[in-house]
Amino acid sequence: MTSVPESIANPVQTIRISKPADAIAVAPYLLGFHPSQSLVLIAIGEKDRALESVLRVDLPQNPEEARDQASWLTGILSRDGIKRVLLLGYGPGSRVTPIMDAVNGQVRVAAGGQVEVPGLRKLTISW
What we know:
Layout: H1 6-9, H2 20-31, E1 38-44, E2 51-58, H3 63-80, E3 84-90, H4 93-110, E4 119-122
Parallel strand pairs: 3-4
Antiparallel strand pairs: 1-2, 1-3
Helix pairs in contact: 3-4
């Protein structure tokens, strides 16, 4: 039986995100579809800054739902020990802002201010 070198059998793909446009451009490829009316959360490893996980949720319909979603997302981040998060909002500002603000605030409180939460907004998208 012929063995295949590990580097060929399991290649590592590096995607460097250095500016907001990079994150917005790569999100559809990480998800497998183009998000719309969504909050996309990209969790980044604390030590190696590698991608930990990607999560997408529908934008909330109202501020109360935004707080509930933020609590749920914060619980996931806390459970998994995630310290670096990138938030991408896809949709109109009136629906993106409440969830971005709620997640940002709750994550900072839960982490005692020891978390990085850069937020990006892509307001209107047509594909």
